[in-house]
């Protein structure tokens, strides 16, 4: 008769050996290609292709000859480049930290609400501002930040802002852009995270409760580790969007009659090079530098978040 310990050992996979994968049916492979094929085509046409073209332009002179790194040197010598990098860096630091902390915290709080209609109402309330995306949300915030027109004028005056010009002073712009981005983008991520929390097996949560886990321990020991890939996914996409900030400073620049400079962000500077100076090669150099930094930071998030880790079944 086989001992119980022998049975458990036989049931477990041997160390260093992965369990055999189940052969995929031919139909499921075809469906996979059908879903991923269009994405690959669009990624080549509108992602990888333009990126390769930008790299070629960045090393070329206007007449098409090889220019070495002269376009990069010209951009780095521009007195507007470093301030633009600092502006975007400050905005990214505030935006990503607030997004990662508050989205996860609010999601855990909403998920813990046992009253079904209240949980649904809160998710809808969080999600609705996302309907006003891009320029429309900035336009709304132009009124909100103006003490002479804002419904929150009393709050602005309490904080010492007596005019629109004082509200959008350059030193406070990273905070304003963070508020706009969080207001319009966080709600969608809360809904996504809420769905991810719902995918945690009920047996796992129940076992944790039986073992004596409270809400805080449950969040720290069970929910957050299982949300790690989703948090990394949110960070990567938000980082990509944050490095390309353009609409918000452009509209504030127009609304403030130039108080906010039109070269506030890196993307605005690239736009000025391309369409005001007609220097597409220098503009491409800025785009390539932005791409390299974004890819490097995204790789860190992917690596630390285990975004592409798979589980053998």
Automatic annotation (TrEMBL):
Keywords noted in UniProt: Cell membrane, Membrane, Transmembrane, Transmembrane helix, Transport
| InterPro entries listed in its UniProt record | ABC_transporter_permease, MetI-like, MetI-like_sf
Superkingdom per UniProt: Bacteria
Keyword Translocase (UniProt):
no
Any single Gene Ontology cellular-component annotation? plasma membrane
Keyword presence, Membrane: yes
Question: Under what name is this protein listed?
Answer: Sugar ABC transporter permease
Q: What is the lineage of its organism?
A: Bacteria, Bacillati, Actinomycetota, Actinomycetes, Kineosporiales
